[in-house]
Amino acid sequence: MGLISMGKLLRFLKLFVLIIISLLIIIVILQAQNRFYIKGFTTIRFFKIKELPKETTQTFLSRGGAKIDGETTEPQKPDIPEVVEANKPQVEIKTTYKINDRGDKMLEIQKKLNKFGYNLLEDGIFGDKTYAAVIDFQKRAGLVVDGVIGPETLAKLDMEPTEEMMYKPDPKNKPTPSESSAEEYINSQDIVSSTEYLIWVDTSKFKVNFFTGSKNKWVLLRSMLCSLGAPATPTPTGFFVVGEKGPMFRVNSSVICKYYTQFYGNYLFHSVLLNNDGEVVDGRLGVRISHGCIRLSIENAKYLNETVPTGTKVWIK
Q1: Beta pairing partners, 198
Q2: What is the per-residue pLDDT across 23-76, written as a single tens digit (0 to 9) for each?
Q3: Are 260 and 272 in contact (CB under 8 A)?
Q4: Which domains can be identified in the chain, with CATH numbers?
């Protein structure tokens, strides 16, 4: 029995040694395979070695930062798709300014106009007084007189003032009436209106003066710059009353006017001329250019249209 047990033990030891040797052989083969791969060969199959293309080998090695021809390569960064930033919206640079525009640029323009002697309130709002100053400035500068501040007007405003370009009030013309003088004048006329409102259009100053109150107790609510009828088609003068009102009427297929307020037949208060998109196409005020109607800025035409009731007295003088 002892001899039989010893024989079994020897067979077991032989088997164990064979297993160990086999494992060692496998390890040696794997190490050799790795070395051949690094040098540019494929895996060992039946001891036939196939060389890999150099480019493939270098790509493989460079990604791991291995040595190629004695030089250490930097590990390649993973191929991450480039993130392309979405196109940012283009900021439109405004180069033309019209009545009712406002902002820092308008404040800058008012300061430049004051450099030429216009004495405007620097509030950044393109209102009636700024518009009147622009009209006068364009006349003095020999520009197209349209009340629109475009590149040519801006260029002239950047110039240094000269004697010819400086604004000088004409002593023959009285200044536009202040609130107190306008009220004093209208209250000396004994004018009665069937409503608590009264409109006085001062054609010499291109002003629509809007009052509230009663006979000899009129209080000025707003004084608005306007344009009147051209010499060939003048605005009628005299006493009238407010009639129909509406949000818009069409001049032709491409021109409209907003916020009309009738005062006599086909004669209306209304906005400056606009295109079908509501953009100003002729914003001139303070001049005689219409077919007899009285043009106002969009803001003032809207204000008058929404405030004055039908039957209000209108005096155009």
Answers
A1: 211, 313
A2: 888 888 877 766 655 555 444 444 444 454 555 445 544 455 544 454 555 555
A3: no
A4: 17-68 (no CATH), 93-173 (1.10.101.10), 179-316 (2.40.440.10)
Q: Is the whole model's pTM more than 0.70, yes or no?
A: no
Residues 6+ positions from 280 with CB-CB distance below 8 Å: 98, 99, 148, 272, 273, 274, 298
Band of the pLDDT at 149, cuts 50, 70, 90?
very high
Beta bridge partners of 45: 48
Structure-derived torsion over alpha carbons of residues 192, 198, 202, 208, reported in degrees to the nearest 10: 180
Point out which residues pair with 238 in neighbouring strands. Answer: 316
Residue 185 has pLDDT above 80, yes or no: yes
Name the phi and psi angles at 172, rounded to 5. Answer: -75, -25
- Bridge pairing between strands 280-282 and 197-202: unpaired
Q: Quick check: 98 and 126 in contact, CB under 8 A?
A: yes
| 3-class SS letters over the chain | CHHHHHHHHHHHHHHHHHHHHHHHHHHHHHHHHHHHHHCCECCCECCECCECCHHHHHHHHHHCCCEECCEECCCCCCCCCCCCCCCCCCCCCCCCECCCCECHHHHHHHHHHHHCCCCCCCCCECCHHHHHHHHHHHHHHCCCCCCCECHHHHHHHCCCCCCCCCCCCCCCCCCCCCHHHHHHHHCCCCCCCCCCEEEEEECCCCEEEEEECCCCCCEEEEEEEEEEECCCCCCCCEEEECCCEEEEEECCCCCEEEEEEEEECCEEEEECEECCCCCEEECCCCCEEECCCEEECHHHHHHHHHHCCCCCEEEEC
